[in-house]
Amino acid sequence: MNNCKMSKGSRIGRLVLLLILFVSFGANAKEVIEIKKSDKDMTPILREALENISDLDVNIVFEKGIYHFKPDYAFEKYCFITNHENGLKRIIFPMKGFKSVEIEGNGAEFIFHGQIFPFQFEGCENVSVKNLSIDWDIPFTFQGEVIECNPEEEWRDVKPFTEGFSWELHNGRLEFPNVDGFNYSEMGSTLAFDAKEQRVVHGGFDVFSTPRWIEKRDGGILRFHEKLKNYPPVGSILHSKGGKEENRYAPAFQVISSKNTRFENIVVHSALGMGFLFERSENAVISKCGIYLREGSNRVVTTIADATHFCNCKGDILIEDCRFENMLDDGTNVHGTYVQVDKVMDSHTVRVGLKHGQQLGFEFAGKDDVIWFVHKPSVKRASENTVTAVSVVNDQYIELTFKDQLPGNLTPGDLLENKTWNPTFTMRGCKIRDHRARNIVLKTPLKIVIENNNFSSMMSSILFRGESYYWFESGAVEDVLIRNNHFEYCAYSGSEHAVMYITPRLGAEFNQDEYYDRNIRFENNTIKNFDNRIVWADRVDGLIIKGNQITKTNDAKPLHPKAPLFEFDNCRDVQVIDNVYKGDQKNAIVADEATKKSLIVEKNMGF
Hints:
Number of helices: 3
Structural class: mainly beta
Distance between the termini: 63 Å
Radius of gyration: 25 Å
Strand content: over 45%
């Protein structure tokens, strides 16, 4: 039953509620709430409905139509949201503790205004959300067409978008999104997009923009006085999303500590963070969903961060038949979390810390979870032990008590990784393109299958990057199959990437030569790309590249023409077999001496 209650004196919209809601119990005793379309602010109306749910099984059914939600009367609570900013959030659907939740949209369009957290499912089971779309009336971003750049005088002229956007020039400073009194403290992360293709420009770089001052010119032009290493192309659309610590308010959907969730036929046109975020949840399906721009939209960005993101989940995760476009981060990221040993308290108890600011408050472990111990300088999973008690010190530190004695060599700076909370992951039949960063980031030791997808990426299409540093995202892979996918126009960032890039990022105290990822198969894929790099692998034990059709295209300027097709550093048991290459790159394979000892290259055509 939901725990968000409003006092009688502050209840709003009761009469309207009675007019548009019908509550009943179906044959299976599930409480049914039917909501009719209205031009009014739906926030207090929906809140009233949720407060009065009397059953742990609920079905909320919307009539097809357009629904507007404002933050004024939304339920509010302090939220810890991984990879976002923690804080007080205004939540429209605060769904907590239900045994089953069904939300049927029937094609409804939800339009949000201001800083709003649309959906949170916490401690729920059997969640189903279908047939609705999400958008914002005003995005929390700034866009403008680049009219002219002068690197010598260190300025760029930009004609801002006004229709559908909100901003104000005040004392030489651009204030945006200028919604309900909220503005970012700086321009922040800024990226140039191709105006025709509505994707990041070829060879584009991320820029953190902090203009010295901005002046208004004739014709609605703004001149940004700022020295840049790389100025945007004239005619491109320059997009800014604000400062790093303030531009991820909340995802469109958060599923936390829940089980058996299914999203189907959901479209997210805009969000103030990620699209779908899962934390410490079990079994999830995202089917026939989309994150993309409305047809004819003048925007170039959908979600501020990842389309989908899974942190310390378990069970089976499936993403199928989805379309993800124009995000400002990855199509998906599946990973665990490293915590760092702060102090060994006694023979059974250790205090550990969360190391990234956007991990604070995250539930790393619970009673009965099995934990791996990682002892520097090795990053290998060593002994394991079972948690018997958890004591939260604060949002950064927790104390874990274990069933058996702690390893005698456990010292501050070592890492812990949760073995229990890792999922299998399958992605099939999806199209991911026209966005910043990577198509998919994979970091789970259980079975991974990526098949029959269409990929195009600014950075690497597929990235393997466990990190004992910065993000502290764990998940050295052990069983990966990538087959029958189509890759086209990948790795067009100004920074160097590859179609598939395997590159662990380890802290200075860890062995930089030790194998990290294992047993990756890249088979029967079709690659059509303007540049050379196909697979770039570092510290992999077991990599098969087989039966792939690779064609060098001439539809874009190569960015790294001297790079090889395949490059291997400190790898073992690599096989490059039965691949066909059509192109002009003669430098096909580069491998260091360690890799050459077990490298097999045979039955390939074209190299």
